[in-house]
Amino acid sequence: MINIALSLIFIPMVLAVMIYLIDKRMVNRLALVIQPILMIMTAYLAIHLFNNGEPTFVLGGWERGVGIPFRLDQKSIIFMIMTTIGISYSISYDWTNHRDDHKYLFFILFLEGSMMAVFQAADIFTLFILLELITILAGILITYEKEGISVKAGLYYLLVNSVGMTIYLMGVILMYNSVGVLDMGLIHEAIGSGPLDPVQCAALGCFLTAFAVKTAMFPVSSWLPLAHGSAPTQMSALLSGLLVKLGIYGLMRFMDIFDLNGFINLVLTLGIVTAIFGVLMAMLQKDIKLILAYHTVSQMGLIIMGLASGKYEGFVGSLLHDVNHFLFKSLLFLGSGVLIYLYGTRDITQIRGVMKNQPVIGLSLLAGVLGITGAPLFDGSLSKILIEESFIGQAGYYIILLVNLGTILSFMKFSQIFTGFTERQVNVPIDKWKKNTVVTMAIIMMLTYPIELIFFDGPWTEVHLTMDALLKGALEFAGLFAIATVLFEHVLMPFIKKHPKVGHKRQGFQTANSMILVFLGTMWAYFLLIG
Amino acid sequence: MLKTGMSFLIFLVGFYGLIRSSNIIKSIISLNVVQTSLILLFINLAMNSGSGIPIVGIEHLPPVDPLPQALMITAIVIGASITALSLMLTVKIFHYYGTLDWHEILEMKEAIR
C-alpha cells in the first residue's frame, strides 16, 4: 500500500530523468503510456483506502514527529486522479511538437511527481518545499516557448509566488517555535481546541496569506491573468485546472489543523469578494484567454465560499467543484487554444462561426460553456447546487446567484463565437492530437455527471441530493438565463462599447507586493484584535 | 526580543525594496533579503547561549535543537534556485525588451499569438 503511494511519486520522477538522459523517441513515448497505469494505481489506492481507512505513514520507518510523514485521504486521492488527467492532456495536446522534446517531457513529468507528493505530504515544511518546487517547475513551463510575453509573465508568476511562499516560511517558523513539531496531526493535538495564542494567530495569518497568493484571492490575484493569458495553451489549462487548486488544497489541510470557527467569517468574506471581482473583470475582457482566466478567479471564490460555509454539504460541494472546474476549464482552455491557432487571433470579437468551420471543436466548447454556467445535466450544476444548498437562508445564497448570473452573462459574450461570419482565413488543418485531446476532455466531462450522481448516494459521502434540489437548480438556471439575456443586450454590450478600456490595466509588480503585505497585515489585525 | 527585532528590521528592509524598487534585479535582491531575514530569525530563535553543537560525543553541553538548521539549509537551497531561475529569465527579458523596469515591461503590448 505504502509502496504504491510512494511509487506514484517516484515513477514519474525516475521516468523524467530517464527520458532526459536517453532522449530517444521510443522512450519519450513512455511518458504518455505511463499515465493510464498511474491512473489505475491511484484508483486501486482509492479502493484500498475505502476498505482499510486513511493511513498516515512516516518515511524510512521513523517515529511520528521525527521522520517525514505522509497522509493519504479522500482529498488526496481526488486531487491525485486530477493530476494524472491533467498531465496526460498537457502531454498529448501538443504531442506532435513534444514527442522529440525530451526537456519538456522531463519538466512535465517531474511536475507530476511533485504534485503527487504535495497531495500526500502531512508536514508543513515538506509542503513548503514541494510548493516551491512546483512554483519553479511551473515558472519554467510557462516560459518554455521563450517569447517576450511569456518570459515576462513567468518571471512575474515566479517572484510573486515566491514572496507568498516566503511568508508561508515565516508561518512555519512561528508555528515551530510555538508548538515544536511540524507534523500536521501532531500540531492539531498540540493546539487543542482552545483559543490560539498570539504567535499561533500570527502563523495562521501567514499561512492564509500564502494560500491566498497561490489561489489568487482578490487583492493578490494579479499574477493569475497575466500567467494564464501568456502561457502555452496546455500550460494555461494546467495552471487554471490544477495549480491554483494547490492553495485550496492547502486551505483544506489547514482547516483540519485549526479549529474552523475562529476564522470562518474571514474566509467567507474573502471568497465572496474574490468571486464577485473575478466575474466583474471577466465580463469586461475581450481576450479569449483572459475571459477564462478571470473566470478561474471567480470560481475559486465559489470554492472558498463552499469551504467556509461550515457545513458538510458545502465542503463536499467545493471538493466536487474542484473536480468539475478542473474538467470544464481545461476543456475551455484547450478548445480556445485550437481556436487561437485556427483564427490567428485572441480577440473574441474577431472569432466567429466556429460551429460551421469546426463542428467538433464547437460542440466540445459548448459543453464546456454549459458546464461552467451550471446548466442542468452538466457537471457544474451539481456542485453549484450543493454549495448553494449550504447557504440557504443566508446572504451568501443570493451572492452565489449573482455570481452565476455574471458567469452566464460573460459566457453569452463568449458564445458569440459559435455563430456568425468572419473574413478571416480559417482553412488551416488542425493537428489530430489537439482535436482528439479536446474531444476526449469533453467526453470525460459529460461522463462526470452520472458518476457524480452515483457518488452522492455512495459510501464515501453522506450527502444526498434530492430531485427537488436538482429541479430547483434547473429552474434557477432558466430564470438567470432569462435575466441575463435582457441584461446582455441592454447593459453589458452598451457598457463595453462606451468604456472599452475599463478592466484592462495590468497591476504592477510593486503593487502586487504591497497588496501581499496589506493582506498579511489585515490577517494579523483580524486575528489579534477580533479573533 | 533583540533577535526578533533584528530579523524584523531586515524583513522590512527587504519588503521595502520589493514595494518601492521598479528594477527587476533589485526586486530579486530584495526577495533574497527577505528570505535571509527569515533564516536568521529561525536560527536565532533556536539558539541558546548555554548549549553546544548537536553532534554526539564532542561536547558535554546540552545540544541545541538541530532541526531548524536542517530546515534552513533546505530553504537556502530553494532560495538559491529561485534566484538562479529568475536571473536567467531577467537576462531573457533584457534581450527581448531592452529594459529592466517593471513599469515599462508590463505596459508594453506585444503581438498576441
Observed structural traits:
heterodimer; A: 531 residues; mainly alpha; two-stranded antiparallel ribbon; 22 helices; 2 strands; 1% strand; B: 113 residues; Helix Hairpins; 4 helices; elongated
Provide a descriptive summary of the structure in words.
The complex is a heterodimer of chains A (531) and B (113). Chain A has 531 residues and is mostly helical. Chain A has a domain at 123-258 and 501-531. Chain A contains 22 helices and 2 strands. Chain A has helices spanning 2-22, 25-52, 74-92, 95-98, 102-118, 124-142, 148-179, 184-191, 198-215, 223-230, 233-243, 245-257, 264-284, 288-307, 312-343, 354-357, 359-373, 379-389, 395-415, 432-457, 467-498, 509-530, and strands at 56-58, 69-71. Chain A has a two-stranded antiparallel ribbon. In chain A, helix 2 (25-52) runs antiparallel to helix 3 (74-92) and helix 9 packs antiparallel against helix 22. Chain B is mostly helical and 113 residues long. Chain B is built from 4 helices and no strands. In chain B, helix 1 packs antiparallel against helix 2 and helix 2 (24-46) packs antiparallel against helix 3. Chain B starts with a helix and ends in a 6-residue tail after the last helix.
